[in-house]
Amino acid sequence: MSFVVDPSSPSVRIKLTIAYRGTHYHGWQRQEIPPTWKGETLPDHGLPTVQECLEKAIKHVVRHPLNVVGSSRTDSGVHAKGQVVHFDTDKVQIPVEGFRRAINSRLPGDINVVKLEHTPATFDAIGSTVSKRYQYVIWNAIDRNPHLYGLDNHRWQTLDVDLMRQAAASFVGTHDFVGFAKAGHGRESTVRTIFNCAVSKRKQFVVIGVEGSGFLWNQIRIMAGTLLEIGHGELPADRVRVALESGERRLAGRTAPANGLYLQWIKFASNSEPA
Amino acid sequence: MSFVVDPSSPSVRIKLTIAYRGTHYHGWQRQEIPPTWKGETLPDHGLPTVQECLEKAIKHVVRHPLNVVGSSRTDSGVHAKGQVVHFDTDKVQIPVEGFRRAINSRLPGDINVVKLEHTPATFDAIGSTVSKRYQYVIWNAIDRNPHLYGLDNHRWQTLDVDLMRQAAASFVGTHDFVGFAKAGHGRESTVRTIFNCAVSKRKQFVVIGVEGSGFLWNQIRIMAGTLLEIGHGELPADRVRVALESGERRLAGRTAPANGLYLQWIKFASNSEPA
Fold first, then answer.
1. Fewer CB within 10 Å: N-end or C-end of chain A?
2. Could you tell me if residue B17 is inside a domain?
3. Residue B180 sits in a domain of what CATH number?
4. Of the candidates B189, B260, B259, which has an alpha carbon nearest to the alpha carbon of residue B23?
């Protein structure tokens, strides 16, 4: 394997796109505990985080300590098809495809580096984010699908997808999502913009797709939970609008389980992207 | 919910078709230990078996002790789309669909009763079997698919599917499969009939489908492992024929991992089936 040395650039920023099955991880990072946390000790769930596994695999390859920055702090049990992270390395680099495969060979089977790119130092996985899309996957059939265990949210009662679509449209635009955030989210502003919110049905799958500028803690799971209760006829279709206007958490639906949630992709400002 | 009492038939035989993800189970039953086992104590893997979970769920519904008989003793990690079991119950029965759902409501999310039928007492999940079909699922792409974790066998080198098909054809017919069985299988006769052995490719999936009268311990995993080594060019395409003729285990390929194996369906003698 050949090595490329670039003495004019001692530090290189690398952008990774990664996919993972979140079932066996305590989320992306332990920092799920918000700044308002009052407890004395943090709970130890005995599960590793995706970040820890990824850092360990990269360290094996670059052979120096490093810190990876992830764009989205996915919760425990949440999956990703296109999480994006960056890290800096000042060591000699092997070619991009060899580098990617070397990292993958050190990762467990439920985490995969899909893409590895050199990126300008102006790129920041958190700061350069322009929009993100999540999917919430529901298996809507009398029977569970045992092969989707941990990968879906099962609903046996037939969902009224048209009603869900009608309600989903009310999420689009810039709103105060304080009623759709878990208490203790620790954010000053709870105003977020949703570019798109669509509900699609294909065979037994009902998928809620949400694209937005950014999301509060548990926001998508509460949005999905509200749409699900509307689809079951437990809440009226205008409840999304009412809950957004009032900002009251109790008017929105229950938080849908983490199992069904996938971080699909993240878009970044073009000036931060590789040329 | 209404109950149907049939006093003329105090004992009813029930046939269940079940699907499961085998990842979190120590196989169908603990009897994977063959009769030739010399150890003093049986190993305790700390995992439940599918049979134990199913019996527990049914007992909750029928409220009497029972024993379920499974057609196939799938190994640890092997999945099922259509495992078939029977059991007898002498208690008042709720209607078929309610009975099925009552059992499912007591089962974990990775086991599902697909079908529940009343069947003549002549039906025996083991004895009435005429043929069984298994699938071996390979994900053939440079990258792993993290969402298939535990559900596939990943091979990053491109498989020569035509060579595998050619070799698979040699399995069809009645042969002595002693070279394709794990030592200690404990069977007197190692002659089995393969009705069909096909290799199909669809996008990144390569699937080996095997239909036969019955199989020896690890037989399909050794058949799949041999076809995989032929597909990688590690073994010549005529090796299947040679290994069958010689009956030597060392001539066949390595045992493929349990992850990729699915029990697809089981056919029974028509005179044992529900009218």
1. C
2. yes
3. 3.30.70.660
4. B259
